[in-house]
Amino acid sequence: MGLLKLPCYTETAASRQKLHELGLAADVRAALRNDERTEKLRITVAVVNGQAELSGITEVSASAQAAAAVAAATPGVTGVTNNLQSRDRRFSRMDS
């Protein structure tokens, strides 16, 4: 396996951090799927330095709030940026 000895495949602090963040994002997605309030949501989860970022669209704002709570309760998550938009709020603003 000579390829693994090439410098571009060398493990670094940044690569370990990225792997940790990908694992933590997977943990958040699993927690969202395992919670009855959020199990049907299809949202994007990204993690940077322990901060989970949620993005996408939900049907109601309560789902967005529940998703943020589930993400915040995931071990290893240090904070949540909730960029979820709910259809009920988007359409109520358009009607105004």
Characterization of this structure:
The chain is α+β, with helices and mostly antiparallel strands. It is built from 3 helices and 3 strands, in the order H-E-E-H-E-H. The chain has helices at residues 13-33, 61-72, 87-95; strands at residues 44-48, 51-58, 79-86. A 3-stranded mixed β-sheet has the order 1-2-3. Strand 2, helix 2 and strand 3 form a beta-alpha-beta unit. It is elongated and about 55 Å long. 20% of the residues are buried.
* Strand order, sheet with most strands: 1-2-3
Oligomer: single chain
Helix- and strand-based class? alpha+beta
Count of strand segments: 3
What series of H and E elements makes up the topology? HEEHEH
Instruction: Point out poorly predicted stretches.
Output: 91-96
Helix content: 40-55%
Radius of gyration: 17 Å
The outline comes out as elongated
- State the helix count: 3
Distance, first to last CA:
64 Å
Biggest sheet, in brief? 3 strands, mixed
Q: Report the mean per-residue pLDDT as an integer.
A: 89
% residues in beta strands = 15-25%
